[in-house]
Amino acid sequence: MPKTEISVWERLEGGEFLDLEQKKEVCNGLMTTEPRMEALILKFFTEKDFKKVLRNRIGGGLIGGKACGLLMARKIIERKLPEYMDMLLPHHSWFIGSEMFCRYLEENNCVELLEKQVKEQDEFTQEEELYERLRSGTISCEMENELKKLLASCGQEPIVVRSSSFLEDGFGNTFSGKYESVFCMNQGSEEERLEELKDAVRRVYASTQNKEAIEYRRTRNIMDAGEQMALLVQRVEGRFLGDYYLPLAAGMGCSYNPYKWMEQMNPDAGMLRIVAGLGTRAVERTPGDYPRLIGLDRAKGNIYTSVAERHKFSQRQVDVLYPAKGRRVSIWLEQLIPLLSRREKKLVLSHDTDAEARLAEMRQYRDVYFADCQGIAYENEFIRMMSQILKTLEREYGRPVDIEFALECEEDGELRVNLYQCRPQQHDASEEVKIPKGVDHEILFDVRRTSMRRSKEVALDVIVRVDPQKYYEYPYSKKPDVSRMIGRINKRFGKEGKKMLLLVPGRIGTSSPELGVPVTYSDVSRFSAICEVAYSKAGYNPALSYGSHMFQDLVEADVYYGAINENSKTRLYQPELLEQFPEVFAQHYPEAEEMQGMIMVYDLSADTARLILDSREGRAVCQAKKGKSE
Known about the structure:
The chain is α+β, with helices and mostly antiparallel strands. The chain folds into 3 domains: 8-82 and 90-235, ATP-grasp fold, A domain (Dna Ligase, domain 1, 2-Layer Sandwich), CATH 3.30.1490.20; 239-424, ATP-grasp fold, B domain (D-amino Acid Aminotransferase, Chain A, domain 1), CATH 3.30.470.20; 440-625. It is 34% helix and 22% strand. Helix 3 (35-44) packs parallel to helix 5 (65-80), helix 8 runs antiparallel to helix 10 (190-206) and helix 9 (141-154) crosses helix 10 (190-206). The longest helix has 18 residues, at 380-397.
């Protein structure tokens, strides 16, 4: 009898050493086929590492981009920075392979609709039907049994089900925040925990059809790439404080800081964006709340110089898990403060000494706290570690990276870090640019130190401006209509290949229309530049959302995202210059009569308009003049 050939998987399980080709076969069947990530995995992973992944995978297929990024980052740290492993908390992760998603699509009659969506793209009209099939689909007995095994492994601490798509967190696309992450309280009976997990799986699968994800795929011409969704299930870092479950703090970090907010800051040093509690507030725009930004070369430096300013621009609410209610909630900082130890308070809270002194004058003696994570910024060993981790990952990835992490204060008072995401940033080289002199009569705006990425020059065809006073006077309930109209403009002119600049009052992407225009990424995805504009008469103040998902989207798409303030950072802002150019809003949208004069669309395609970014000077200039330049 001829000897049966032993498969590479049997060799792996049997503890045999694999040659390079065999390792590649395992990598391509378990983790990724993307060439650059594959090269990193083959460089750092051993047979033991592959076996760990295999043991924690349920269902066949690949574990997807987010899972690969997490495992790769931790492996690089283990090999290159072993001195920091004691400061790194162990991760508890499980992987639902991509074959599970493929079976789910087949069993719920989604395959034909997906093929139709790829074929028809912009003309596809059955999004809602496809979404509903995914959201309410039947989970097979086989898949249910696998999910039971997963629950048996992860105990009864809260978990989060996260997307780990093939297209996600890779070298070509990041899909920051496009797919849903669903927290599971993981409490109660086995049946209750299973139903909660099944619903979370359905929600993440259905999020492949949300508006943001589809627009992202469309603008990057990858609608026909075939989305395949694996899932990453992780134990939520944290502990119970009273009725709440949360880490002490969490956030994101970038190895390259494209937007320096202090003059002497070195962009190559990187930055952190940290909040108390769950990291959701670090990557989402939250009205009235400000995370702590830390430049890793100037960690103790603060953009705000007075205590009053630091308090004003601090965090007021904290995201936590509330198992009794079965969901994530936002609580006021005052509800959390009594639950923190003295050491924890020192790390995330600061005293408003001015307010305390005023109260003392009235014979009222009490602490006045605000959350700005000042103590964390003063933890030298932590800052040094994060800096070295980011730069080491950047070197190995061959480009800047960003990470997500959570922090815990251990019983010994030391900070420990759990790293749970790593992805490469999309990176382009700077161009040589020259800013014209002596032409102030042609300058729409000239600003410094308000968001910069790389040096470049962009010719503009269209400038869209929202008048701040008229937006302020527009009925509150109708303000979201302004966002939808911007979305229509975005789609129409973007489809024509026009280069567009958007000027909006206050914050963009806020969920509170009184602070700015509540657009989503899909509403502005085809603009080349976006500026938040200050207008103090109505209380509109720019607040560039460094590190948020929208920020990541704009950085990845190489969109200039800046602010026109009413301070020394703005040398010139002359919106009246635009009146010399054709205003075509009414021509294109005659039915939106009540928005005429509030949303203005200036057509400069027959004239000369350009945005010039000089990253060396930290300067952005927009020039607009009649006629074509020779």
